[in-house]
């Protein structure tokens, strides 16, 4: 019988990494300058390995190959096969990340034979001075942007988000220029893709002492030059309720603030469900069984377990709920 699956985190040392994944998420094994913890991944060379239950030691691709739609749901399996469609991470920045952009599915397929990269950030911790670069601060045409890029004046065109706090959300569709700022710990939900076009990297060098590669022409082609008056995602935080944060064709995310047992029923969605314990721990009760999830852990509930109960630890916890919305009556909004 299938059960909620936990995976071994994959830590990525980055030139901009910090120590809060270890300190804030109870990860004593995280290395110094840990910039990323890949919680669930199906990328080649970085496929997640199960750590609990009878499937321990098997990787995500292997178990999908055996259990197929019992893991991901029929609709997801028919579309993606044994390739899991999402990459789930924690990011911790002690320096400003590069100004970058990701390609959409069409461009990624043409140039890399891969999926594009639409993603979302949920802020877990923010220094008082932390900032995020997100999109443009006014209407911009590509020609103007290229001219200002050539003279290093392009930063004045970019929108800067300040006064950041825990719970802030930014949905980042492929093509939106962005940069995570110094002093931020975030949860990141994204398509299974690792394609990033760096446009500017603050003239720093990488861990090898050499300047990091830029991808100027590809970035200019990938950028969506649309302007929006607001880039932050608004959502409710009602206790013991399904607070919808993002509902896109790539993934859906709910914010759960649990103070009592909460029934979840995904029978109509034909999907797996992922939970990120971003505050205290909780338990998943299903089929007379129980899986405990600690603060900072990520767990995947297979599609074969469509109904279960979430029980908060100490009468209160915050959880991110992530799934693919295959319910025909629901429209994708993002």
Detailed description of the structure:
By secondary structure, the chain is of the alpha+beta class. It has two domains: 5-222, Jelly Rolls; 243-323, Jelly Rolls, CATH 2.60.120. It is built from seven helices and 21 strands. A hairpin with a 4-residue loop joins β13 (243-247) and β14 (252-258).
Topology overview:
Layout lengths: L4 E2 L3 E9 L1 H5 L9 E7 L19 H8 L1 H4 L1 H7 L5 E8 L5 E3 L3 H8 L6 E8 L5 E5 L5 H9 L7 E4 L7 E4 L5 E3 L3 E8 L5 E4 L15 H7 L20 E5 L4 E7 L3 E4 L7 E5 L4 E5 L2 E5 L4 E4 L5 E6 L4 E7 L11
Antiparallel strand pairs: 1-19, 2-3, 3-4, 4-11, 5-12, 6-9, 6-11, 7-8, 7-10, 13-14, 14-21, 15-20, 16-19, 16-21, 17-18, 17-20
Oligomer: single chain
The strand order across the widest sheet is 1-19-16-21-14-13
Low-confidence stretches: none
Number of discrete domains: 2
Determine the number of helices (DSSP H or I, runs of at least 4 residues): 7
Helix fraction bin: 10-25%
Report how far the terminal alpha carbons are from each other: 35 Å
């Amino acid at each position: 019988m299938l059960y909620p699956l936990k995976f071994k985190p994959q830590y990525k040392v980055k030139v901009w990494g910090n120590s809060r994944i270890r300190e804030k998420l109870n990860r004593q094994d995280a290395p110094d300058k840990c910039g990323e913890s890949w919680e669930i991944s199906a990328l080649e060379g970085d496929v997640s390995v199960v750590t609990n239950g009878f499937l321990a030691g098997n990787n995500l691709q292997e178990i999908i190959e055996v259990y197929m739609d019992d893991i991901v749901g029929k609709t997801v399996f028919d579309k993606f096969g044994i390739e899991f469609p999402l990459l789930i991470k924690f990011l911790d920045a002690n320096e400003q990340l590069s100004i970058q952009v990701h390609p959409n599915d069409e461009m990624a397929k043409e140039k890399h034979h891969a999926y594009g990269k639409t993603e979302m950030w949920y802020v877990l911790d923010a220094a008082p001075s932390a900032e995020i670069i997100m999109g443009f601060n006014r209407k911009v045409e590509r020609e103007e942007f290229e001219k200002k890029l050539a003279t290093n004046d392009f930063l004045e065109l970019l929108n800067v988000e300040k006064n950041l706090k825990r719970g802030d959300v930014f949905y980042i569709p492929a093509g939106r220029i962005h940069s995570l700022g110094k002093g931020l710990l975030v949860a990141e939900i994204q398509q299974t893709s690792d394609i990033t076009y760096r446009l500017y990297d603050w003239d720093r060098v990488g861990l090898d002492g050499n300047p990091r590669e830029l991808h100027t022409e590809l970035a200019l082609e990938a950028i969506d030059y649309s302007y929006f008056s607001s880039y932050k995602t608004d959502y409710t935080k009602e206790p013991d309720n399904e607070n919808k944060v993002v509902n896109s064709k790539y993934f859906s995310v709910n914010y759960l603030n649990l103070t009592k047992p909460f029934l979840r029923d995904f029978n109509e969605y034909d999907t797996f469900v992922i939970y990120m314990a971003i505050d205290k721990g909780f338990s998943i009760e299903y089929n007379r069984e129980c899986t405990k999830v600690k603060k900072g852990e990520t767990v995947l509930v297979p599609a074969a377990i469509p109904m279960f109960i979430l029980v908060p630890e100490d009468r209160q916890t915050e959880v991110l709920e992530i799934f693919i919305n295959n319910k025909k009556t629901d429209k994708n909004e993002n």
